[in-house]
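[Q] Does anyone have a clean structure-token version of this?
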Amino acid sequence: MFDVKKETEGIISFIRDYFEKSHLKGVVLGISGGKDSGVVAGLFSLALGPENVVGITMPCHTKNECADDAKLVAEKFGFELINVDLSSTFDAYKKEIAQLDVPEEKMLRNSDINLKPRLRMATNYYIAAYYSALKGGTYIVAGTGNLCELFVGYFTKGGDSTYDIGVLNNYTVDEVIAIGEYIGVPDKVIHKTPNDDLSDLTDEDKLGVKYSEIAAYMRGEPLPEETAQKIEKLHRNAAHKFHIPVYER
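[A] Here you go.
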């Protein structure tokens, strides 16, 4: 049985202890308007005080709804929310790439999708350095991935895989929702259909399996053979995302 009170208190204690031991002042994270970033922002606000949390919305040819939902989270927990629109930065990058004379634009679709989280993570680190100077103490970047996403490699190397501290890495989607409900993340956010705001598909559409099925697979529960094979293949094909091979001389 998932003890949400115990787990939430454990995460908050972990954050406080790490920041105290490492002499850190605050945290920066991207706020997408989804459950994961909403829960992470809430946990850090409770652990450090909202005055030491900076959320960033980073639209990049994306829907206004995401920014609106991010504001709901910021208003609930009281942390500062800033906006950095990356649309023109993305366009400038694409303009430069166009000089490579790529024969078909569709060949760049995956590159385009992965560029956005990489631009966003660069922005997180830029803002973290800025606030470190502004506030006279070190700000670090928080990750927002959950265990189900990580298990199947549903993240971008050099993008949302890059951060300084992760607090949801060992929690499945249903457990993240339970924590969110417990700390009071707005219902509209915590129960929103997961999507990356990078394509027109939901997370589960893109993966071809449900998060509940991924969680069941990790727990060793029986699943239809086809579903289990899909999850196993996703996990296996993402192996290169978890370990960087280094030649040992």
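[Q] Thanks! Anything notable?
[A] DSSP finds twelve helices and four strands in the chain.
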